[in-house]
Design a protein that fits this description.
Layout (H helix, E strand, L loop, with lengths): L3 E3 L4 H9 L5 E2 L14 H16 L8 E11 L2 E3 L5 H11 L3 E12 L2 E13 L4 H11 L13 H6 E5 L2 H5 L3 H12 L1
Parallel strand pairs: 1-2, 1-3
Antiparallel strand pairs: 3-4, 3-5, 5-6, 6-7
Helix pairs in contact: 3-4
């Protein structure tokens, strides 16, 4: 069986692959999460995922299958990244409160010179959150490493999300059922 390399340090992506019982190793090389101007929002996450895959390519054996992903949050066609600090996290969550946003995860599966890439989009609707709820979440969970300043599997997802349309696990950081189907095609 060919080795699957997860090119991500995300504990959520690792957990999802473990839940799916996909054997993998993690190899991470720090990469920029910047992207060229003019990309459609659906292309941004794939672009960043591809950069992650390319960064680890020289570090792994040639027959390895590299799996890389990146998740972005989009509100009113504007990409919301990871919060810079506490105040930015509070500001982001205040903007998401009582609104719908999209969570887009771009996935790149690369082997040798071949690549499968796709993105998955999920609509998330937040209840109206008050400032005490937002501050409680930010202070307790410190969501500074999360696009959109939240993790759906934490307290805010349990009490603050009205509905989810699409793949729940995509919001966690990986549309794992689709990833498994694509990996099965490669491994034959």
């Amino acid at each position: 069986m060919k080795k699957i390399i997860l090119a991500s340090g995300s504990p959520r992506r690792k957990q999802l692959l473990e839940w799916a019982e996909v054997p993998f190793e993690t190899v991470v090389k720090e990469t920029s999460e910047t992207f060229p101007a003019g990309l459609k929002v659906e292309e941004v996450a794939i672009y960043i995922a591809r950069q992650k895959a390319l960064a680890v390519l020289p570090l792994v054996s040639k027959d390895s299958i590299i799996l890389a992903a990146d998740t972005i949050v989009v509100l009113n066609e504007r990409i919301i990244g990871k919060p810079r600090d506490r105040q930015d996290a509070i500001s982001i969550l205040s903007a998401l409160s009582n609104h719908q946003h999209r969570v887009i995860t771009g996935v790149v599966i690369a082997q040798n010179k071949e690549e499968i890439s796709f993105s998955d989009s999920t609509d998330v609707y937040f209840h109206k959150l008050n400032s005490a709820q937002i501050e409680f979440y930010v202070d307790k969970y410190k969501p500074y490493d999360k696009a959109g300043a939240y993790a759906i599997q934490e307290w805010i997802g349990v009490v603050g999300i009205k509905s989810v349309k699409g793949d729940f696990y995509n919001v966690m950081g990986l549309p794992v059922s689709r990833v498994v189907k694509e990996l099965e095609k490669i491994k034959g």
